[in-house]
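Figure 3 (text version): structure tokens given as input.
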């Protein structure tokens, strides 16, 4: 026990010294100067400097500081966010899913039904996840009207929530970004929001599609680029969702049945600004990694028709592994931007050691401790396997990934909006404090991996969000999985 405490003490001292190297060096230099020079001599030297020289030095320092401030990109802030909270009438408990599957034998065969039910039981989803009204019909209503109805329900609920919570008025929105991967009607979602909330005629708007579950974080990166060159006080409204009604797969391909089992209805809205007024979080680093140049990654999440002509999304059995590889590439770019110097030094030493001992010994690279850079982690709730892969790759504890697992259990995979449900879970639990740092990780078709960091400016004053009626029941114990499907 004493040896463990000794090692922990040495690690703590190492981090303090290395992370504060400049301060330590300055203190050492100052101590050396004062040892050699008495305070009276220092004061006499200061008095010997002519006032005009002091004034010139101050002017130069002020000029350098002003120039640096002008050249620095504008800070971007998250003013508020809101999430769609489905009513209990949309619930899809396992018993209902089983009953509906057996009442539609002409859509899927018995073997496919058994596979889907086993997958659902092992997926990490709970009994309260919700599907759109169209899924409650037999057969499911895959019409354009059903999709529009779902769109208006989830998007308008999330936007109403963010306007109510932030106090921002629709007339104050300067830019609108809406993302939905598959369903893209005409007029597009952005026009639908503009029409509903009567946004200004000069509002800039962008509608993103086909980018999968990573589109929400891609939207944040786009908003950041726009806000850093926009006039002060510019507000951006981001809406992230995935519309399921028209996407129900009615074939037998197992890889294409997975989305039916994992995806659930949801939406989130965010208001970003380059003004710190009313800000709740400050945006940090945004890093996007695209691995679509590799054929295997490109087809990992792929929309196509099966042999019977049924359209669906094919999810590769190597999805979790592909996500892990994309995450490694993303970390290589993201890590140096957020990790403290002490962790970067250890990574550099292990890389140097591997290069010097190449061929003579197998050197294991040092895995950086990201808990030194972040207090909270929001990993896209794409499935139990994806969360497991990221947890193992980053060396995170069960507490670190609790928000991701509980979001998957309560709401299912809500695609690009899932990380906002996870952030809401952390705040509903009262765990967010001023100055806390958050790392959001999302994955999407392409294959994409996105990392976004935030720093809390002002924690939520209440838990009146998507978890308002259920947070007290969480966390829950998830069943052990003996073997993955």
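Below: residues designed for each position.
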């Amino acid at each position: 026990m004493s040896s463990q405490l000794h090692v922990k003490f040495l690690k703590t001292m190492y981090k303090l010294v290395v992370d504060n190297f400049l301060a330590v060096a300055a203190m050492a230099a100052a101590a050396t100067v004062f040892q050699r020079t008495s305070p009276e001599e220092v004061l006499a030297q200061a008095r010997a400097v002519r006032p005009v020289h002091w004034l010139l030095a101050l002017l130069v320092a002020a000029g350098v500081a002003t120039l640096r401030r002008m050249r620095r990109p504008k800070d971007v802030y998250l003013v508020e966010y809101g999430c769609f909270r489905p009513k209990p009438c949309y619930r899809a408990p396992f018993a209902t899913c089983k009953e509906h599957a057996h009442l539609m034998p002409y859509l899927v065969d018995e073997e496919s039904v058994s596979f889907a039910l086993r997958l659902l039981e092992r997926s990490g989803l709970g009994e309260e996840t919700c599907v759109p009204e169209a899924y409650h019909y037999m057969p499911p209503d895959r019409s354009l009207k059903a999709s529009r109805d779902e769109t208006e329900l989830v998007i308008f609920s999330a936007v109403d929530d963010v306007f109510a919570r932030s106090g921002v008025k629709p007339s104050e929105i300067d830019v609108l970004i809406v993302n939905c991967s598959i369903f893209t009607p005409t007029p597009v979602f952005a026009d639908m929001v503009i029409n509903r909330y009567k946004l200004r005629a000069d509002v800039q708007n962008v509608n993103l599609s086909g980018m999968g579950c990573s589109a929400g974080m891609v939207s944040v990166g786009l908003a950041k680029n726009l806000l850093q060159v926009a006039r002060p006080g510019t507000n951006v409204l981001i809406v992230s969702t995935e519309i399921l009604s028209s996407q129900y797969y009615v074939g037998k391909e197992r890889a294409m049945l997975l989305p039916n089992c994992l995806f659930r209805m949801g939406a989130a809205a965010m208001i970003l600004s380059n003004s710190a007024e009313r800000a709740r979080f400050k945006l940090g680093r945004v890093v996007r990694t695209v691995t679509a140049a590799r054929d295997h990654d490109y087809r990992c999440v792929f929309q196509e028709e099966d042999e019977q002509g049924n359209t669906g999304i094919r999810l590769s059995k190597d999805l979790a592994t592909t996500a892990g590889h994309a995450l490694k590439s993303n970390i290589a770019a993201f890590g140096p931007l957020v990790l403290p110097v002490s962790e970067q030094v250890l990574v550099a030493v292990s890389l140097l050691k591997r290069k010097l001992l190449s061929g003579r010994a197998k050197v294991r690279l040092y895995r950086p401790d990201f808990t030194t850079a972040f207090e909270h982690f929001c990993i896209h709730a794409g499935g139990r396997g994806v969360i497991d892969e990221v947890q193992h790759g980053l060396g995170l504890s069960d507490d670190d990934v609790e928000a991701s697992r509980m979001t998957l259990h309560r709401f299912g995979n809500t695609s690009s909006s899932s990380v906002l449900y996870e952030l809401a879970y952390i705040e509903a639990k009262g765990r967010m404090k001023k100055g806390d740092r958050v790392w959001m990780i999302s994955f999407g078709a392409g294959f994409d991996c996105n990392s976004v960091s935030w720093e809390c400016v002002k924690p939520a004053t209440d838990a009146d969000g998507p978890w308002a009626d259920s947070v007290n029941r969480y966390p829950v114990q998830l069943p052990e999985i003996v073997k993955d499907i």
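The mean pLDDT is 87.
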